[in-house]
Each structure stands twice: as C-alpha cells, then as structure tokens.
Amino acid sequence: MTSDAQFETTMSGPGVPVLRIRGEIDVASAPEFHASLSDLIGREPEIVIVDLGEISFIDSTGLGVLVGAQKQLRDAGGDLRLVVTQPQITRLLELTGLDEVFTILSNANDAVRT
Amino acid sequence: MTKAMSAPETVGSVGVNRVELSLAADAQMLFLARMTAAAVASRADFDLEQVEDLRLAIDELCVRLMNAGAGAARISLVFQWDASELDVLGTLVPEGGPTRNGHHASAVDSGISYELSERILDALVDGHGDDIVGGVHRAWLQMKRVGHLA
Known about the structure:
The complex is a heterodimer. By secondary structure, chain A is an alpha/beta fold. Chain A contains four helices and five strands; from the N terminus they run ββαβαβαβα. Chain A has a single domain, classed as Transcription Regulator spoIIAA. In chain A, α1 runs parallel beside α2. Chain B has a single domain, classed as Heat Shock Protein 90. Chain B is of the alpha+beta class. In chain B, β4 and β5 form a beta hairpin. At the A-B interface, α1, α2 and α3 of A face α1, α2 and α3 of B.
C-alpha cells in the first residue's frame, strides 16, 4: 500500500515553483514529501510555494519537513511560503507557533506577489 | 509547557466504554489508528473540533511509539471513556522477525518533529506522557470533554 498523498509541481509566475499536495501528510508520506520539496529547492529558486489547500491531515512529521525546507531556503536567501485555506490547518500552525515561521496566504498567486 | 502525567491507572481496568486496537507498528497502518480515534471520539460525544484533535493526538502518540522501537512490533491502543474524559494508553509490543520498513521518515529531522509533536500534544490534550516499564514502551494521553462540569 502506498502513502495516501499526491504531489504535483506547477509554476506560478516566472521561476516560482508550487508544490501542490492532496491527501494526508503523515509519517508514511513524509519521505515522499521531503523528496519532492528537496527536488524543488535543488533548482535554487528564490521562492518555493507549498499549497496545503487540499490536504486533509498533517502531523508533526510533515510540519518538520516544512521547517527543515524553510531553514534550507532561508540559509540560501530564499523563502518558503504556504497556501492554507482550511481552518484546522491554520489552527495547527498557530498552535505550534509555525504561523510565525511561514508567510501564510490564501492562494498561490498571493504567495508570489507578497 | 509539557502536560506530563503519570500513566492513568484506570485505563485498561474497568468500564464498558472501552475499545482496543492492535496494529502493526508500521507507518502505512497509522491511518487505522486515526480512523479508530475519530470513531471513538464521535461515539463518546466529543465535539467535532475535539474529534479532529484526538485524531492528530493519536497519530503523534503512535509515531512516538514507533520511533521508540528498533525491530518489528505491534502497537496496542486502549481507548476508555466516561461522561467527562477519554483516556488512551498505547503500548509498543515487540515481535520476532525482521525490522519493518517505513517506521519513520529517516529523511526528516526527528529533533524538529519531536519538538513539534510535544507542542501539538501540549496544546490538544489535557495530559500526556510516556515511559518504559520492564523494557516496554508506553505512551498515554487524556482528553477532557469540552464544557463538562466536574
């Protein structure tokens, strides 16, 4: 059985990759999430957008992937931005203090403009 | 702040409101623990937000147990509740045989994830903890019903 998550990379604006995720980000899908994000960061973009608008679950393992990616990008002068549309995900980011770590916006276009 | 608590003595001892689940300590099986947690919380008349909170808390508890074990194992979960609260006791039960793949995301910084897991459990449940008794890893949590008058 494979993990219950799907990852799709698109572009939003010139040179801004968007990793769009559907499904559940947990300890089973985190390695694929990490690999997908590392692949994008390896292309050395200034901004990477992770669209969490269609995920139904994310745990500390998935959040840890995001934090690690943000650190990597910030060290290189870049930034990881999140698209979050679901109240429960917003609440989780607030509970963990990660709303202070990421720019959180309601859609990918806003994430590029900010 | 960690809401550390000792293992609930009542868990596993009495009560008809009790559900037990045994599953392989395998990342691919975790969704079953989350589904069961949501079903139990609904059955116990917790509100929707607490159902979601318990689903996430159980996931964190199981990941903690899985990361504690090096070889093949099963996770035993005992849910027990009454009118005011719900207790869950998780135990990592070692099994013979080879190590399972996919126990944890080795590519992920486990230090960051553990810290985040602590923050999540501190925020979502009213008490939690873990220990090792006789070489057996245990983890537990307690959630009180919102609005319940003691």
